[in-house]
């Protein structure tokens, strides 16, 4: 019988330092470690930017090139010297930055020129294209699609963090059995089936799901906390993003 227990989180993740602090270190003299951390953030939020660029009327290949060009520019140190966390949230910073990038048409054209000096990032472009295809029926604005993609990225990243935590604690089987209960879905595995599968009581399964949901809520708050400069803005940002997500 597999018991659920309080788990000690693994080594510090990207969520445990604010995204703003990563940006500011990378824009200063933070060294290669700071640049690497910023690169990881760029990969994490690659799809929301790609979706925004697509919704602005670009085809898949041009959107990939523009997104790569945008993040290449962002990774250049001089592009971050004016970043100021007091001006808003990291989400708003990225959206304003990509709008500015696309408004400077000459810069965008230079960045997407094939065969140029654009540093490509390792992302699954085909998967992103398929994800975007599933959103074609949603006639929302580029800005709203960006926000929906943003919260979807946070939620997916939160689930992956929990998967890592449970795996670190030797509870991968438990996580795989109950993680469908984190979201509203018709694909939820009945608790009775989980109990039979894992040799647990129904009460123990229900408690495991409850603890997983509590941890998930905390992880999402931590993730959002890493994107705002003031901790007091966490609940407001959470409410805003959940309202956007609920409207999908």
Automatic annotation (TrEMBL):
Lineage of the species this protein comes from: Bacteria, Pseudomonadati, Planctomycetota, Planctomycetia, Pirellulales
Protein name: RNA polymerase sigma-70 region 2 domain-containing protein
Record keywords, A-Z: Sigma factor, Transcription, Transcription regulation
GO MF annotation list: sigma factor activity
Keyword check for RNA-binding: no
Pfam families: Sigma70_r2
PANTHER family linked to this entry: RNA POLYMERASE ECF-TYPE SIGMA FACTO, RNA POLYMERASE SIGMA FACTOR
Domain RNA polymerase sigma-70 region: 49-110
Record's keyword annotation contains Transcription: yes
GO biological process, one term: DNA-templated transcription initiation
Domain of life (superkingdom): Bacteria
């Amino acid at each position: 019988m597999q018991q659920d227990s309080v788990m000690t989180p693994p080594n510090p993740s990207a969520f445990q330092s604010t995204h703003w602090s990563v940006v500011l270190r990378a824009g200063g003299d933070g060294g290669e470690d700071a640049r690497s951390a910023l690169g990881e953030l760029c990969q994490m939020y690659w799809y929301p930017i790609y979706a925004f660029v697509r919704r602005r009327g670009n085809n898949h290949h041009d959107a990939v090139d523009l997104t790569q060009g945008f993040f290449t520019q962002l990774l250049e140190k001089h592009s971050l010297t004016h970043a100021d966390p007091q001006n808003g949230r990291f989400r708003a910073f990225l959206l304003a930055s990509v709008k500015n990038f696309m408004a400077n048409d000459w810069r965008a054209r230079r960045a997407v020129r094939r065969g140029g000096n654009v540093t490509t990032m390792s992302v699954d472009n085909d998967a992103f294209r398929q994800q975007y295809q599933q959103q074609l029926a949603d006639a929302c604005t580029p800005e709203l699609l960006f926000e929906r993609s943003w919260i979807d990225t946070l939620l997916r990243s939160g689930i992956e963090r929990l998967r890592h935590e449970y795996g670190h604690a030797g509870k991968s089987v438990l996580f795989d059995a109950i993680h469908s209960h984190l979201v509203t879905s018709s694909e939820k595995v009945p608790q009775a089936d989980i109990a039979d599968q894992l040799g647990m009581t129904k009460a123990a399964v229900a408690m495991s799901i409850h603890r997983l949901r509590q941890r998930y809520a905390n992880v999402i708050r931590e993730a959002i906390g890493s994107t705002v400069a003031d901790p007091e803005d966490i609940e407001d940002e959470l409410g805003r993003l959940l309202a956007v997500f609920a409207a999908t």
